[in-house]
Amino acid sequence: xxxxxxxxxxxxxxxxxxxxxxxxxxxxxxxxxxxxxxxxxxxxxxxxxxxxxxxxxxxxxxxxxxxxxxxxxxxxxxxxxxxxxxxxxxxxxxxxxxxxxxxxxxxxxxxxxxxxxxxxxxxxxxxxxxxxxxxxxxxxxxxxxxxxxxxxxxxxxxxxxxxxxxxxxxxxxxxxxxxxxxxxxxxxxxxxxxxxxxxxxxxxxxxxx
Length: 209
What we know:
With 209 residues, this protein is α/β, with parallel strands linked by helices. 50% of the residues lie in helices and 12% in strands. It has 10 helices and 5 strands, in the order E-H-E-H-E-H-E-H-E-H-H-H-H-H-H. The protein has a 5-stranded parallel sheet with strand order 2-1-3-4-5, with helices on both faces. Helix 7 packs across helix 9 (170-184). It is elongated and about 50 Å long. The protein starts with a strand and ends in an 11-residue tail after the last helix.
């Protein structure tokens, strides 16, 4: 499927084999790596590939790997998978350059569709949802309070912190958050963060401590 290679990085051998089997069966060309450092040995010479990496690994985290790849000018569309996802990690991963962030357990088709989107990036085909004018139009539909909630989300703040800052209840934050997801047409949190960053809603630095 496509003419690109899907690189898998996970320190768990069973996970590597399972993902490799799934993606090979789906028609992708796959290479598996047991560590980020092992993958980095091939990184400078990578051509036409995308990356599926675990977030938490003993030698180098998925986010650290993204920063390292950028330092050697090896741009690889990257999907981060994790069993320990939260808002701040998703924001950090997206700001580091990940194109998607998927929490375990996930359905097979969720990963496959994410890899197809990575292939679109390689082919330099920007999805319609990434069009700046489209994103700005969606942002314009948000109320002032919804925009404030979105800014808090992209800053990596949990609902309770957003509620405290805005002097509203966490339940009200949840309602606004659901409205933001709907109006922005976001599939999930990483998708929402990606859209907000693409629309330059948030500053480029990381979430508040």
